[in-house]
């Protein structure tokens, strides 16, 4: 079975954690046998607080720039960057500049429990 969608046809849902964060569910766990694919958008001036997830995250930055903290490391992530965030490792995002920070996020199928640290 295959599936074909247009990203512009998928509604973004506001996320409770952080400020200016929304998410488009591109491929849900029900639609894909192994992974879910999401598109997170953090508005300029927005952030996602330090948190952990129970599953790993594979990410590809589509646009924008953000300060990303993963564990004890902090770095600037830009369009074209690829990130792997292991399960249980704390991480956060804070946009830089005047453009939204947008990234694809793949997670393995299964429950993704999120714990906010701050």
Q: Would you mind describing this structure in some detail?
A:
- With 118 residues, the protein is mainly beta.
- The protein has a domain at 23-39 and 48-104: Jelly Rolls (Sandwich), CATH 2.60.120.
- The protein has no helices and 10 strands.
- It has strands at 13-14, 19-27, 35-53, 57-63, 65-70, 73-78, 82-85, 91-96, 101-108, 114-116.
- Strands 1, 2, 3, 4, 5, 6, 7, 8, 9 and 10 form a 10-stranded antiparallel sheet that branches.
- The radius of gyration is 14 Å and the shape is globular.
- The relative contact order is 0.27.
- The model has no long low-confidence stretch (mean pLDDT 95).
What's the arrangement of secondary structure elements?
Blueprint: E1 13-14, E2 19-27, E3 35-53, E4 57-63, E5 65-70, E6 73-78, E7 82-85, E8 91-96, E9 101-108, E10 114-116
Antiparallel strand pairs: 1-2, 2-3, 3-8, 3-9, 3-10, 4-7, 4-9, 5-6, 5-8
Radius of gyration: 14 Å
Q: What is the 3D form?
A: globular
CATH topology of the domain at 23-39 and 48-104: Jelly Rolls
Distance between the termini: 42 Å
Q: Provide the CATH top-level class of the domain at 23-39 and 48-104.
A: Mainly Beta
Biggest sheet overview: 10 strands, antiparallel
Oligomer: single chain
Low-confidence parts: none
Range of strand content: over 45%
Give me the strand/helix succession.
EEEEEEEEEE
CATH architecture of the domain at 23-39 and 48-104: Sandwich
Question: What is the number of E strands?
Answer: 10
The CATH superfamily label of the domain at 23-39 and 48-104 reads: Jelly Rolls
The residue-averaged pLDDT reads: 95
Number of helices: 0
Fraction in helix: under 10%
Pairing-aware structural class of the strands and helices? mainly beta
């Amino acid at each position: 079975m295959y599936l074909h969608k247009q990203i512009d046809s998928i509604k973004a849902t506001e996320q409770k954690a952080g400020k200016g964060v929304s998410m488009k569910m591109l491929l849900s766990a029900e639609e894909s046998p192994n992974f879910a694919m999401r598109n997170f958008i953090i508005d300029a001036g927005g952030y996602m607080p330090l948190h952990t997830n129970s599953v790993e995250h594979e990410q590809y930055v589509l646009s924008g720039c953000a300060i990303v903290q993963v564990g004890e490391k902090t770095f600037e992530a830009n369009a074209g960057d690829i990130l792997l965030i292991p399960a249980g490792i704390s991480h956060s995002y804070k946009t830089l500049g005047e453009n939204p920070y947008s990234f694809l996020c793949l997670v393995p199928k299964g429950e993704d429990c999120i714990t906010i640290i701050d």
